[in-house]
């Protein structure tokens, strides 16, 4: 069942413009942003880190690559999103499978180490100077 929420005029206008550019309705665009934000949060990537990454900050990229490509036990544990009990239960199950050797830690990542190492980050420029997204 759909629910209504209030958002600021700025967010509304930004979502409407972004949605129009990619042929999504306003609701579809907001849902896309929510899912994207949840995925970043679950991965332990902060909004500040994602913005710095989009701006080409090599330090953030290096830290993320080190986290993804380091052997188990050599990286600091990142905070995980556990707001939904089913996510926490699934995380615990996956950790147990890794500990028992039933799955490799790398199998938990969307991209392989090779894909991450060879990735090139680019930033799309706004269509009109000064208008941003």
For the residues shown, what is the average pLDDT?
76
Straight-line N-to-C gap? 30 Å
The largest sheet, given as strand count, sense and whether it forms a barrel, is: none
Count of extended strands: 0
Q: So how many helices?
A: 6
Q: Based on CA inertia axes, which overall geometry fits?
A: extended
Radius of gyration over C-alpha positions, nearest whole angstrom = 18 Å
Residue stretches low in confidence (pLDDT < 50, at least 5 long) are none
Structural class designation: mainly alpha
Share of helix, binned? 40-55%
Q: Spell the H/E element sequence.
A: HHHHHH
Sheet-strand content, in percent, reads: under 5%
Number of domains: 2
Task: Describe what this molecule looks like in 3D.
- This protein is mainly α.
- It is built from 6 helices and no strands.
- Helix 1 packs across helix 2.
- The longest helix has 17 residues.
- It is extended and about 50 Å long.
- The chain starts with 8 loop residues before the first helix and ends in a 15-residue tail after the last helix.
- The mean pLDDT is 76.
Topology, element by element:
Blueprint: H1 9-21, H2 26-42, H3 47-54, H4 58-69, H5 85-99, H6 113-118
Helix pairs in contact: 1-2
């Amino acid at each position: 069942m759909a629910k209504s929420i209030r958002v600021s005029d700025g967010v509304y206008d930004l979502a409407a413009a972004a949605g129009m550019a990619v042929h999504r309705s306003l609701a579809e665009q907001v849902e896309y942003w929510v899912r994207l934000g949840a995925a970043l949060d679950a991965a332990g990537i902060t909004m500040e880190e994602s913005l710095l990454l989009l701006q080409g900050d090599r330090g953030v990229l290096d830290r993320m690559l080190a986290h993804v490509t380091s052997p188990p036990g050599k990286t600091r544990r990142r905070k995980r999103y556990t707001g939904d009990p089913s996510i926490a239960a699934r995380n615990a199950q996956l950790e147990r499978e890794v500990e028992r050797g039933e799955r490799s830690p790398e199998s938990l990542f969307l991209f392989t180490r090779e894909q991450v190492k060879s990735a090139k980050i680019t930033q799309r420029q706004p269509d009109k100077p000064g208008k941003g997204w």
